[in-house]
Specification:
Strands 6-12-9-8-7-15-14-13-16 form a 9-stranded mixed β-sheet, with helices on both faces. α1 packs antiparallel against α2 (56-68), α10 (261-311) runs antiparallel to α11 (332-355) and α20 runs parallel beside α25 (706-729). β14 (826-831) and β15 form a beta hairpin. The chain is of the alpha+beta class and 915 residues long. The N and C termini lie far apart (136 Å). Helix content is 58%, strand content 9%. The protein has 5 domains: 2-168, Phosphatidylinositol Transfer Protein Sec14p (3-Layer(aba) Sandwich), CATH 3.40.525; 181-309, Methane Monooxygenase Hydroxylase, Chain G, domain 1 (Up-down Bundle), CATH 1.20.58; 312-500; 547-729, Dbl homology (DH) domain (Dbl Homology Domain, Chain A, Up-down Bundle); 736-904, Pleckstrin-homology domain (PH domain)/Phosphotyrosine-binding domain (PTB) (PH-domain like). The chain is built from 27 helices and 16 strands. Mean pLDDT is 75; it is low at 1-27, 318-332, 493-535 and 874-915.
């Protein structure tokens, strides 16, 4: 079968043209149809007048083609030839037998000849076959038949066409169409197989590139060509399936119809072609899989080689990522770790390539071994240098800590106590005791430090170390000068010692260990110490380090504050919108996130995006700190809104604080304190600023930056006061007007008050002299409110105070007496020409003076405003200050003096007021 199929493929290309040239133009109607009783293929040569004129080459091609159609098994049985010459002559019979005997390529079994039907020609044929049988050189019998009936005795009618009295359906045109289509398909299969073979040969002969780019290009080109050939295979398979369907069409349309042997043979031929096409595709796919894998492995190898030479570890010198700040020296280990991890990962990649049966195992394995050896050497050397660096860091910390402790010691020695011999000796002893700790801590000298740690001193680290060494020398110089001064005092020298540092009221706080290194002196601060004398230089150094530590504490606590705000917003506020936790939120808390948290997010955004960055910019120039607070005065007002909402927030927390929702959020955040403690952070933070500014003012007395710091402190205190006042203002109840129309709340506080009325209030007056009223006063520019303070408790919790409105005085009708005989904590406020007098007692003289001063400012401001309006009314008659009395009560007032008292008095007359 294989030989017949191969022969068919070889002959198909040549027989295609000859078949059309011989069978169609010359009408050579010979066909291979039907089978003998033993399955032998039957080839019929029907009557054809021009048979002898057909060229031998055409005849040979046709016969060869017909013998190649049956299967090898059928062809091995032998072919049966049927020659129909019933209407012809003996000469035609002779020529046919001679040509078949000389040109038939297959194995013959029998030759049937339907002799001429005419009597004379039949007789001649009988005689001729006897005479020329040997000339035909046929080894098979030649059976002469008189009629088709005789032929039916040898071959069944169902295997013969109608021309031979049989029932076999035969259409010569359809037969040629099918055979042509089969041949075309065979050519397609052969061409496709040749293309695949050529492509496979090209792939096998292709040399693998030595770089990544060429490998990627080759892989892409081969993949594209593979896709094209797969498309050709798919198209050829579709063509064969269509052809097979066409051949089977008669039987599929008519269930009673049966395919004749030739049609069955055609089906087998197409199926064999499809099978071979499928085998070819499978072989191609297997080859392509191996080739594609090899190309990918080649690409992996090239990447591995590039990474090997690129990431090959050098000697472990300190990498460029070493931070210049000593507090960050320990991060050097991570800088060493990164290249080491890359090399180890590359070695692991190489192991994976080896385990995946890579074709270049012999090239990969040595590189992996080399990588691991280098990694071990690098890790050992890096560990040594990290150990040295750690020792250098520890020594650096000791030097820095010793210097700072020394500065604090010098700053904490009170100058007045050192003026006596005993005090000087005590201070001198403290200094000598402290200096002895340098030997105990084994502090290295600068030369010893450089000698021992030169291996790890990069330019960046050396610059930082130089600063510490300079700091050490400065501190030593300060101690030397202080010792000289104290020794003179201890020796009872009459000349006073030049003070070397201001005495701080309290020891400065130590900086957080997380804080960055003390900043370098700014240009303005650096020049003065270098040009000044030793004592002045020491003083400035002390001031500078006090500044530095306060700045560090401010910035570090600011960072912690921002982190805490972020944890509250993300861990609590955001979780209230989490659908997974919605079932844990109590009903009382639903849709009340703004009440609980207020404008906390606004405060967080301000500090994170603006204020923290500006404070960090002040590290190198602490003198800009006051300017920073002044610049953000308006932005810091966000705390007023937060504090106003705080009572509502606390009330809501008391209702819902024990809910599972808050417990779950606290567990996730790993907070030790509950949410209410963190909600107090903003209130605590705004008060922390004024404490830090006060500390900085203590260190900067008589400094050029004192004015700005004082103004910044006043700003923060004013904000705190505004926040505090606003919280009291929102607690006022019973006032029918709009408090916002009264302007800014200037002062508020609780006082003891006695009242005195001229008309009909003698009894009240007498009673009031002995029993003062407790009132909370609110001072505005337009009005003075009298309220009664109420403090209640709810469920055991202290409730925020509320203020019930009782009375109000228009400031335009008010006068003030600053001193009341018998008590310097009292002052008078009288109203409408002393018809009503309020004696007010403060809790302290300082508080009383503050209120008197603020009230005088209000009254003086109103007086100046009236004078300004009067100057515009130059047409007013003498004695009239401005306009109608009903327009402004203050415009009808005047100031009078009383013996023993000084006051501002309001009268109802029309005289011009004067102070």
């Amino acid at each position: 079968m294989a030989k017949s199929f191969t022969t068919f493929l070889i002959c198909a290309l040549f027989l295609q043209q000859s078949l059309h040239q011989a069978l169609i133009p010359s009408q050579l109607h010979c066909c291979s149809r039907g089978r003998g009783k033993d399955g032998a293929p039957i080839i019929t040569f029907p009557e054809f007048v021009g048979f002898s004129e057909i060229p031998d080459e055409d005849f040979l091609n046709v016969v060869t083609y017909l013998t190649s159609i049956p299967s090898l098994e059928a062809a091995s049985i032998g072919f049966i030839i049927v020659i129909d010459r019933r209407r012809d002559k003996w000469s035609s019979v002779k020529a046919s037998l001679t040509r078949i005997a000389g040109a038939f390529p297959g194995n013959l079994q029998l030759v049937f000849v339907l002799r001429p039907s005419r009597f004379i020609q039949r007789t001649i044929a009988d005689i001729g076959i006897k005479l020329y049988r040997d000339d035909f050189k046929m080894k098979v019998p030649i059976i002469m038949l008189n009629s088709v009936s005789d032929l039916h005795g040898y071959i069944d009618k169902s295997q013969l066409t109608r021309e031979l009295g049989g029932t076999l359906e035969y259409g010569h045109g359809q037969w040629i169409h099918h055979r042509t289509a089969i041949e075309n398909f065979a050519v397609t299969v052969k061409t496709t197989a040749q293309m695949l073979q050529t492509f496979g040969t090209d792939l096998a002969e292709t040399e693998l590139p030595n770089d990544v780019q060429c490998t990627e290009q080759l892989l892409q080109a081969h993949t594209e060509r593979h896709s094209e050939l797969k498309a050709e295979l798919k198209l050829a398979g579709s063509q064969g399936a269509t052809l097979l369907s066409c051949i089977r069409e008669p039987a599929s349309k008519n269930p009673n119809s049966k395919l004749n042997p030739d049609e069955l043979e055609n089906i087998l031929t197409v199926e064999r072609l499809l099978a071979q096409l499928d085998e070819t595709e499978k072989a191609f796919d297997q080859f392509w899989t191996k080739h594609h894998l090899k190309l990918n492995q080649c690409l992996q190898l090239r990447h591995f080689e590039i990474s090997f030479f690129r990431d090959l570890l050098p000697s472990p010198s300190l990498p460029p990522c070493v931070p210049p700040e000593p507090q960050q020296f320990l991060t050097v280990g991570f800088c060493f770790q990164e290249p080491l991890e890359k090399a180890q990962a590359l070695a692991a990649t190489g192991d994976q390539l080896i385990q995946s049966n890579h074709y270049a195992v012999d090239s990969i394995r040595p590189k992996c071994v080399e990588l691991r050896r280098i990694c071990d050497d690098f890790a050992n050397e890096a560990k040594k240098k990290c150990d040295i660096l750690g020792k250098a860091l520890e020594m650096h910390k000791q030097l820095d800590s010793w210097c700072e402790d020394g500065i604090y010691l010098l700053a904490s020695q009170a100058l007045d106590k050192c003026q006596t011999q005993e005090g000087a000796e005590t201070a001198l002893g403290d200094i000598e005791k402290f200096l002895s700790t340098a030997k105990e801590q084994q502090l290295l000298s600068p030369q010893e430090f450089y000698s021992q740690f030169h291996v790890v001193l990069t330019p960046e680290i050396k610059e930082n170390v130089d600063k510490v060494i300079q700091k050490l020398e400065d501190v030593q110089e300060m101690f030397d000068r202080r010792q000289v001064s104290l020794k003179k005092l201890a020796a009872k020298q009459t000349r006073p010692v030049q003070p070397v540092a201001p005495h701080p009221e309290s020891s400065p706080k130590r900086a957080s260990p997380k804080a960055s290194r003390p900043p370098t002196l700014g240009k303005g601060r650096r020049a003065a110490p270098e040009a000044a004398s030793g004592g002045c230089r020491s003083c400035l150094i002390l001031v500078f380090f006090c500044f530095s530590h306060i700045m560090h504490e401010l910035i570090e606590t600011e960072r912690v504050y921002v982190e805490e705000l972020q944890s509250i917003i993300e861990g609590y506020a955001a979780e209230m919108d989490n659908p997974d936790l919605n079932h844990l939120i109590p009903v009382a808390l639903q849709n009340k996130k703004e009440i609980l948290f207020g404008n906390l997010h606004e405060i967080y955004e301000f500090h994170k995006r603006i204020f923290l960055k500006e404070l960090e910019n002040c590290v190198e120039n602490p003198e800009f700190l006051g300017r920073c607070f002044l610049k953000r005065k308006e932005d810091l007002q966000v705390y007023e809104k937060y504090c106003q909402n705080k009572p509502r927030s606390e009330t809501l927390w008391r209702q819902c604080g024990d809910s599972i929702f808050f417990q779950e959020c606290q567990r996730k955040l790993d907070h030790k304190l509950s949410l209410d403690a963190y909600l107090l952070k903003p209130v605590q933070r705004i008060t922390k600023y004024q404490l830090l500014l006060k500390e900085m003012l203590k260190c900067s007395k008589n400094s050029e930056d004192t004015a700005e710091l004082e103004e910044a402190l006043a700003t923060v205190l004013d904000i705190i006061k505004s926040v505090n006042d606003s919280m009291h203002q929102i607690a006022i109840t019973g006032y029918e007007g709009d408090l916002h129309e009264l302007g800014k709340l200037l002062m508020q506080g609780s006082f003891s008050i006695w009242t005195d009325h001229k008309k009909g209030h003698n009894k009240v007056k007498d009673l009031a002299r002995f029993k003062p009223m407790q009132r909370h006063l609110f001072l505005y520019a337009k009005l003075l409110l009298f309220c009664k303070k109420r403090e209640d408790s709810v469920d055991g919790h202290e409730k925020s105070p509320s203020y019930s409105f009782k009375n109000s005085l228009k400031m335009s009708m008010v006068g003030i007496t600053e001193n009341v005989k018998g008590d310097n904590k009292k002052f008078e406020i009288w109203y409408n020409g002393r018809e009503e007098v309020y004696i007010i007692q403060a809790s302290s003289v300082e508080l009383k003076n503050l209120w008197v001063s603020e009230i005088r400012k209000v009254l003086t401001g109103q007086l100046e405003a009236c004078r300004g309006r009067a100057s515009l009314l130059d047409f007013s008659p003498p004695g009239v200050f401005c306009g109608s009395p009903s327009l402004s009560p203050f415009t009808q007032s005047k100031v009078t003096k009383y013996r023993g008292k000084r006051g501002l008095k309001a009268h109802s007359g029309m005289e011009r007021p004067k102070l």
